[in-house]
Write a structure and sequence with these properties.
Layout lengths: L1 H12 L3 H32 L5 H10 L4 H22 L26 H7 L7 E2 L9 E8 L3 H17 L3 E9 L7 H15 L5 E5 L3 E3 L13 E2 L3 E2 L15 E5 H6 L13 H11 L5 E2 L6 E4 L14 H6 L1 H4 L11 E7 L4 E6 L16 H23 L2 H12 L1
Parallel strand pairs: 2-3, 2-4, 3-12, 6-9, 7-10
Antiparallel strand pairs: 1-3, 4-8, 5-10, 6-8, 11-12
Helix pairs in contact: 2-12
Length: about 400
Amino acid sequence: MVKVSIKRRRAHNSLRLRWIVLLPVLLLIEAFVIYMHIHDVLMVVSLHLNIKLEWIRGLENKCGKLSALSNHDSAKLHFTKLSEKATELGLPLCPEEPQGLIGKLDLVNETSTVDLNDLNANYSFVHFGGSRPTDCYSRTKVAIIVPHRNREHHLRLFLQSIHPIMRRQQLDYRIIVVHQAGVGTFNKAMLLNVGYQEALKREPDIECFIFHDVDLLPEDDRNLYRCSNVPRHLSVGIDKWDYQLPYDALFGGVIAMRKDHFSKVNGYSNEYWGWGAEDDDMYVRILHSCLGLERANYEYAKYRMVYHHSDTKNRLNPYRYTLLVGAADRQRTDGLSSLRYKLKSIEMAPLYVNFTIDVGEPSLNQKMKSFGTGIDIAVSISLLLFMIFITGFACCRSRLPQTMLFTRCSRR
């Protein structure tokens, strides 16, 4: 009887091969689901934990050291040309450090109403979005590019704040607002590319471009809106993030790039429809082009982010980090070289120049059909949970746990 009982137990706990064979197949399917849909989340976590990703580290190591001598010679030549131009006009060169700066600013209440007519009257020194000093020759000519759609209140607050600062910094500047027409998916990066291109068509002598989010207001006018020998990140500290960088690769908000630098990286990618990662893509392009970058002085480079409601047409792009991984590979073919848009109108307002453009719609490939709705993410998670359930069921049917437990008990 004892032998029969043992045999029955062994038969009951014996492995079922067909279920054992099914287990690795199910595990492979789960691994594929994770790779296709969940690895983006892991990449986001890596960036926000300041973990240097291998593909970024590889770009950094490829470049080596920048030539300090070359940068010095370039700056010296630029200064010589400025001095000659100032002499021709009978003006002194504006000082390196402007004398009329205030420092930390008392910003207006962001809920207050700003009347454009009042601003036009108060800022009579601004014509067609720009101004230049009259008592000295400015050291640089700057275009401030602002992407925009349905943010009229933010735009007025920005104009109210930025014009006096630019005047005190003694800049030859122009504010260029690029407005996306229609109600389709927002493409901030493409708007920035359009602003750069349209500005140079009309004023080829622009040397420095400031790419500026409309909802960021500078808190200190000592943060100079100038370009450097390398791309500069101006919005180092933002109140929303307690004036700290959320992650090392952040290069957005407000950045300054020379005309030749922006051309060298082929501008921004045009592929980021919706919110997220177009700034990180620029970070990769800069590293891939061996330009280097710098952060502005943290003490001065602080901004307030004006609150705004979520834009239903600017949803989180679920494939933003999939695009980001291929940023360096796409750089030559995706950007200024592939820019396509329709210029619908130009408005020469007193305080800014407005370009209204039609950027079209994202391509309807397989990934974009459910773009921005969150349906694809929900389906992916549901599929993964279902696969885990099936795997657990197959594991039980194979009697693998019972067999392992029986073997362990038998040894005892």
